[in-house]
Specification:
Strand order of the largest sheet: 1-2
Number of strands: 2
Helix content: 40-55%
Oligomer: single chain
Largest sheet: 2 strands, antiparallel
Number of domains: 1
Length: 137
């Protein structure tokens, strides 16, 4: 039986899209680089699922994983690309020099405004809210 996917996008897509090499992040083997990417993709799936209040894999059912909207895979790939870029920058230097006088640290923002905007194209499931009459005043 094939292993269930635990994430959107794929390790191979990330490697192809980013052009990442094993040595870029200081990994000792391709297997360790692939494991690192896969673990980050699991985290990204969690971010997307919580943002949209849904699990696209659970919604399409077993054996239909390819029916997850392609845009969700693309968003996961873009978030992962941001993570890879930040990791490479941090290993080079944690500081970005903007001009002769200003310097800034590498930001932790992988969930950019452009990604959030694209993610909003996919409807979020409403969150259950309880209202208790006479509650807080």
């Amino acid at each position: 039986m094939a292993e269930e996917k635990k994430y959107y996008s794929s390790v191979d897509d990330v490697l192809q899209h980013t052009g990442m090499r094993i040595e870029d992040l200081g990994f000792m083997s391709e297997a360790s680089a692939r494991d690192w990417i896969e673990n980050r993709l699991v985290e990204i799936k969690d971010l997307i699922d919580h943002d949209r209040n849904r699990d696209y894999h659970a919604e399409v059912g077993a054996g239909e994983r390819d029916k997850v909207p392609p845009g969700i895979h693309s968003i996961a790939l873009r978030i992962m690309s941001n993570m890879v870029g930040q990791a490479v920058l941090r290993r080079t230097t944690p500081i970005i020099k903007k001009d002769d006088f200003s310097v800034q640290l590498v930001e932790d923002r992988v969930f950019t405004e452009a990604i959030k905007k694209d993610l909003r194209r996919y409807l979020a499931k409403p969150r259950l809210r309880m209202f208790i009459p006479g509650g807080e005043k």
